[in-house]
Amino acid sequence: MSTISSSTFKLNLPPSIYQYSALRRSYHRPTRTDWKTTCAIVSGSSCHATQFDEDGGGIGTINGSMAAALDLTSIDPSVQDALTFTTDLSPAPTHGCELRVAYQGVPGAYSEAAAGKAYPNCEAIPCDQFEVAFQAVELWVADRAVLPVENSLGGSIHRNYDLLLRHRLHIVGEVQLSVHHCLLALPGVRIDCLKRVISHPQALAQCEHTLTNKLGINGGVAREGVDDTAGAAEFVAKHGLRDTAVIASYRAAELYGLQILAEGIQDDSDNVTRFVMLAREPIVPRTDRPFKTSIVFAHDREGASVLFKVLSAFAFRDINLTKIESRPHRNKPLRLVDDANVGTAKRFEYMFYADFEASMADVRAQNAVSEIEEFTSFLRVLGSYPMDMTS
């Protein structure tokens, strides 16, 4: 069993961070002494990231400088208020751990479990937003981030696909986590006393059949969506809500002193969430084990069959395409098209994310990507990384 230590996420940065601008490569990691002598607050609500260029040609610069983008405010380094959740950020002490890993949520979240599976004995750093986790890695507060990208029942987590494009982090691995939901409440609370059940909307949807037909929690008991499963457990425990149950993990019950009313309440036992591991630098792709590669591309050229050509580039080389996902082009949602036969029409513009089973060290993958570049206006390799072969 892997051990995860969670710590308050505050950001203690040296004075040089105020001159830090655009490219992270110009920033040198401060010493532990520097971190202890200077600190700042980074508000998750004020995060501004790189934007996709309006011409579709790549990533633009950060707004002015990193200091302006993050709204840094000096604080007294002697103040060490305990936090369970992170809009204030500080580099976590390593305590001999190899890696500090950022995840979204509070202790007890499924993302924390994924971080522990990906990096046993890591220093897990909770973040209140997905974008804060990205920035924690960019600013050297964390060494890695572990974030969900898709669920076998709920589909893709679109927010993280958008953030992959807006930030210059690299996918260096993936991990799949089986999700086992529990129904939690304060000690002594019975199911027939409940007036509402709260959790993340996907967790509520994944357990609805069991709640209604097996546990008898019918329409008279309200369902309320919140941002985080473990955060919901913490909320119920903190406020002593005896009419409210939570759908969360077994670990959340242990952490927040809740009783388990029912275990394994997910409607489908094969409920799996896929997470990706993000780092500042890519790993060197290899061919001695199964690899997966993720790319994002766009096209703004007239003519049909662009997606067919992309699929053909992989099929011709016998490369298995495991996923393709379209997302609206952030700065070009619509395109006017003039056709002599039908007049002027508006078409939606999209970015396309694709995963395929091949390493970029494989000549087949290199040739496929080169071919795709010929008929797309933008292409970026998000990462080439080992596949998670565990069940």
Automatic annotation (TrEMBL):
Cellular component, GO, one term: chloroplast
TM regions (residue ranges): none
Domain Prephenate dehydratase positions: 100-280
GO BP annotation list: L-phenylalanine biosynthetic process
Coiled coil regions, renumbered to chain: none
Protein localization: Plastid, Chloroplast stroma
MF-aspect GO terms: arogenate dehydratase activity; prephenate dehydratase activity
SUPFAM superfamilies with a match to the protein in the record: ACT-like (SSF55021), Periplasmic binding protein-like II (SSF53850)
Enzyme nomenclature, EC number: 4.2.1.91
InterPro entries in the record: ACT-like_dom_sf, ACT_dom, Preph_deHydtase, Preph_deHydtase_CS
Pathway: Amino-acid biosynthesis; L-phenylalanine biosynthesis; L-phenylalanine from L-arogenate: step 1/1
Enzyme class: lyase
Keyword list, A-Z: Amino-acid biosynthesis, Aromatic amino acid biosynthesis, Chloroplast, Lyase, Phenylalanine biosynthesis, Plastid, Transit peptide
Protein name: Arogenate dehydratase
